[in-house]
């Protein structure tokens, strides 16, 4: 959570993320908010950071969902929700069979219909 206050971290995120899809897991959403990437977005984060994320006035926090895709920005709740998000990105990019193979290698139960 301290990374959101580190000017070098924020500058690095801004420099790299302007050219790419952006995803955060857990409280990484606080870094994206500090960098301005969540302005006008509806992200989620770990439940323990909802109040901190609400301090950014242009961000509308979504609760009770494992992950959110909002344009080029994706955010997830906790760690396992981050795995679901990343498997969804793999599925969208490379197909359902590849996502299932990746989940199998991780010994992770992946059910895209449940997210």
What features would you describe in this structure?
With 115 residues, the protein is mainly alpha-helical. It has a domain at 2-79: Rossmann fold. It has five helices and three strands; from the N terminus they run αβααββαα. It has helices spanning 7-17, 28-34, 50-54, 79-94, 96-106; strands spanning 22-24, 67-70, 73-76. Strands 1-3-2 form a three-stranded mixed beta sheet. Helix 4 (79-94) packs antiparallel against helix 5. The two termini are 26 Å apart. The model has no long low-confidence stretch (mean pLDDT 88).
Element layout with pairings:
Elements: H1 7-17, E1 22-24, H2 28-34, H3 50-54, E2 67-70, E3 73-76, H4 79-94, H5 96-106
State the gist of this model.
43% of the residues lie in helices and 10% in strands.
Second-tier CATH architecture of the domain at 2-79: 3-Layer(aba) Sandwich
State the CATH topology of the domain at 2-79. Rossmann fold
Overall geometry comes to globular
Strand order of the largest sheet: 1-3-2
- How many E-type strands? 3
The tally of helices reads 5
State the fourth-level CATH superfamily of the domain at 2-79.
Answer: Class I glutamine amidotransferase (GATase) domain
> What is the averaged pLDDT score?
88
The Cα radius of gyration reads: 14 Å
Please report the first level of CATH classification, the CATH class of the domain at 2-79.
Answer: Alpha Beta
* Unreliable stretches: none
Portion in strands: 5-15%
Coarse structural class: mainly alpha
Q: Can you write the helix and strand succession as a string? A: HEHHEEHH
**Biggest β-sheet description:** 3 strands, mixed
First-to-last CA distance: 26 Å
Helix content: 40-55%
